[in-house]
Every structure is written in C-alpha cells, then in structure tokens.
C-alpha cells in the first residue's frame, strides 16, 4: 500500500511548520490513566451532549483510560492529520474525516484494516456510499460516522402569498423559484438562494439529469461535466442563478440561511442541521422538502457527513476499537439521530423524528450520491476546482467549452 507521504499531494504547506514545532503527546494522563485520543471534525458538528456522554461511558467501561476528545476545525483537519498520522506519539487513536476525504486516507494506509472486525459493529451499517468510501482494495478501513442530507428549506408564507404549491418535480421546482423572484418585484430578492460557486448543491442538477462529475473507466478517471446530460443540468442551474437568485456570482454555499433569516430569500438548500440556524421566531414559517427529481423520486443530492476509523499508527488498537464499538452502540446511535445527525445504524433513523424535516432528510438520503471515490478527490476540493468551475458558469462562460476544460483538469488530478 502507498505510503502516508502521498498526503503531500494535497499541497498543505502548513503541515511542515506543524511538524517542526509539534511535540510528542504523552500516552498517560496526570492520573496515570492511559490516554485515548479521539479527533472529531468541526467545532460543533458533534454536539457537546454527545461528547460528554462518550467520555463518561467510555471511561466507565474501560477502567484505567482517559478519553480526550479534540475538535478540529474542518479547514485544519487535513494538515493536522497529515502531520500526526505518521507519528505514533502524535496520532489520534480514532479520527473522523469527511466522506469525500475518506478515499484519500484509506488509500495511503492511514487507517487500521477493520475488515475482519466490522461485523462486530453491526449487521447493517450505512449509507452504503459511505461504506464504499471507507473501503480500498477490497478491504474496509473506515466506517460511517453520521450522514446529513441536503434538502430544501422554504418560507411557507412566501410560497402561499405567491400562490405556488410545493413542486413535485425538478422542472416544477425550477419554474416555481423563478416565479417567486419575479412576483416579489425586488431585484435583490431570491426565490432560491444560488451562490455562483455553490457546487455542492449545483451537482444535484447534474445528477438529476443523468450526468456526473467523473467516472472510472478501466484504470482511469474520465471527467463527465461536458456530457450532454451534465450540460443540461448545468444549463438549468445557470438559469436559476440568473433568474431565481440575487446571490453573488462568486458566492459560496456557507451560511445559506442568512439571507433567508433576513427575509431576502424564499428558499435555500442545505444539510438538515441548517434548521437550527433559523431563529426560533421564524420556526412556524419554516418548511422543508426533499429536492424532487423528474422521475417521481427525490433528486440525487450530495450526501454530507463523515467516516471514522482507527489510526494505523495508534499504539492502543484494542482500546480504539472499544471506542468504535461505543460509537456504534444503540445508545450513541440514538443520540446521533435525536440530535439531527443521520445514524450509521438505520434502525435508529426513526429517532430523527416524524416532522417534515426528518421526513425530508430521510427522503433526500434515499437517493443521495457522493463525489468520485478517487483517492485524489481531496486535492480537487483543496484546490477549489469545483468552486472555480461553477463560478465561471455562473459568470456567463460557455457551458460546454468550460465543462470540457474542467473535465481535463479533473482527469489530470484524479489520475495522478
């Protein structure tokens, strides 16, 4: 298997500085207990109530251990891991990565092989696309941590005032949000918030029209943004950017709820946890539904979420697996679901609730899709190739020609 030095392809210059100044972490706490380190991605993505529960239960079940949980900002996750994973004194014992980052780490030997033990975590784990992202060369190295579907949040009042029923097809949705903007009479109002560089939502229109980002043909990856199906989806997305939205052409998908909260947008699309970013006083007006496709099912949307696994360099392999087992316990899976995070064990999905938001999340997840599972996909994200591509489309570049140009860029990176 390829060496961890392959992570250098990500071009993370800060990793060198971190290596130079980093010091070895002690394996023992002040009390003499063995320290087990868990790195979680995002400052608040895993709620505090869940981490407190993990600490309490793990230390009670594993006498003589001290579970230390560190939250790593998403922007620092890759460089921190790049530095730590090759050093048994610095590595976390268990760590989380984004689902699209997972193939990079599984392919370089960063995770312990779980193939013979994954059955001990449960008979049915998912989503399947996450399981696939955690596998490499026929072996399972990482497993799903949680998933979060992207779906549409909307103002019930805005739709009702415009006399627009909830759309049941993607074509009807496209028409409805353009009409919402038109009826507002306000050039700064958005029927649907469409930042120009928002590729994570934009790819749903590609997928729904039968297109793709890139596919593996034999041993090579081939860009598919310029396929007829992908171009059709991009044309529909560009129409929304021009006629349904007042969002900046160079805008990103971060905090899409802000214009909604300010009364500047009738709808936006985001992972389910965005619900908690809408003020309580607006809760009665907030609705949700899965983006519809044109085939009677939910449109294929990008599945957000994470995988988790054991560091291959951890000196505490048994204790680390015990932590994975606790994460996969019925109690923790219930806590994930009750906090709006899709559980890896589908038996607990119902605990996400029975309201329209829970239903939207489950419906959207039923047809979700990941980015290409090339080990080099992380480089696509860190170099912001997709943001650049969608920004050019939103800015008026020729769609077919630009798509062909970026197919070549994708192929160059994915086939390194």
TrEMBL record:
<dbReference type="GO" id="GO:0055052">
    <property type="term" value="C:ATP-binding cassette (ABC) transporter complex, substrate-binding subunit-containing"/>
</dbReference>
<dbReference type="GO" id="GO:0042956">
    <property type="term" value="P:maltodextrin transmembrane transport"/>
</dbReference>
<dbReference type="GO" id="GO:1901982">
    <property type="term" value="F:maltose binding"/>
</dbReference>
<keyword id="KW-0732">Signal</keyword>
<dbReference type="GO" id="GO:0015768">
    <property type="term" value="P:maltose transport"/>
</dbReference>
<dbReference type="InterPro" id="IPR006059">
    <property type="entry name" value="SBP"/>
</dbReference>
<feature type="signal peptide">
    <location>
        <begin position="1"/>
        <end position="22"/>
    </location>
</feature>
<keyword id="KW-0813">Transport</keyword>
<dbReference type="Pfam" id="PF01547">
    <property type="entry name" value="SBP_bac_1"/>
</dbReference>
<protein>
    <submittedName>
        <fullName>Extracellular solute-binding protein</fullName>
    </submittedName>
</protein>
<comment type="similarity">
    <text>Belongs to the bacterial solute-binding protein 1 family.</text>
</comment>
């Amino acid at each position: 298997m390829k060496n961890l030095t392959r992570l250098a392809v990500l071009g993370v210059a800060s990793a060198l500085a971190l290596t130079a100044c980093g010091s070895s972490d002690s394996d023992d706490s002040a009390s003499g207990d063995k320290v087990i380190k868990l790195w979680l991605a995002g400052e608040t993505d895993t709620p505090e109530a869940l981490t407190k529960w993990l600490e309490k239960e793990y230390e009670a079940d594993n006498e003589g251990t001290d579970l230390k949980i560190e939250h790593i900002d998403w922007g620092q996750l890759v460089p921190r891991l790049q530095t730590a994973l090759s050093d048994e004194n610095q590595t976390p014992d268990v760590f989380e990565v984004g689902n699209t980052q997972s193939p990079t780490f599984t392919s370089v030997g960063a995770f312990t092989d779980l193939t013979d033990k994954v059955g001990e975590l449960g008979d049915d784990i998912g989503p399947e696309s996450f399981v696939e992202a955690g596998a490499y060369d026929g072996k399972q190295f990482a497993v799903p941590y949680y998933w979060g579907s992207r779906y549409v949040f909307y103002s019930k009042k805005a739709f009702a005032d415009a006399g627009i029923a909830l759309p049941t097809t993607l074509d009807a949705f496209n028409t409805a949000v353009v009409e919402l903007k038109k009826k507002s009479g306000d050039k700064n109002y958005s029927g649907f918030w469409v930042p120009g560089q928002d590729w994570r939502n934009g790819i749903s229109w590609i997928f729904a029209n039968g297109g793709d980002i890139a596919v593996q043909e034999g041993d090579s990856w081939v860009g598919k943004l310029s396929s007829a199906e992908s171009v059709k989806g991009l044309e529909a997305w560009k129409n929304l950017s021009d006629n349904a939205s007042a969002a900046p052409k160079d805008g990103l998908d971060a905090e899409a709820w802000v214009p909604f909260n300010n009364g500047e947008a009738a709808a936006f699309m985001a992972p389910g946890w965005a619900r908690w970013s809408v003020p309580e006083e607006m809760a009665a007006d907030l609705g949700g539904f899965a983006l519809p496709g044109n085939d009677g099912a939910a449109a294929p949307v990008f599945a957000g979420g994470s995988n988790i696994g054991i560091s291959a360099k951890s000196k505490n392999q048994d204790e680390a697996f015990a932590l994975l087992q606790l994460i996969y316990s019925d109690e923790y899976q219930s806590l994930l679901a009750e906090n709006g995070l899709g559980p890896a064990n589908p038996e607990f999905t119902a605990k996400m609730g029975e309201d329209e938001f829970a239903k939207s999340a489950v419906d959207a997840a039923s047809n979700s899709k990941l980015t290409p599972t090339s080990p080099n996909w992380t480089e696509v994200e860190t170099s912001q190739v997709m943001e650049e591509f969608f920004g050019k489309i939103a800015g008026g570049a020729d769609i077919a020609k630009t798509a062909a140009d970026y197919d070549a860029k994708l192929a160059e990176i994915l086939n390194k």
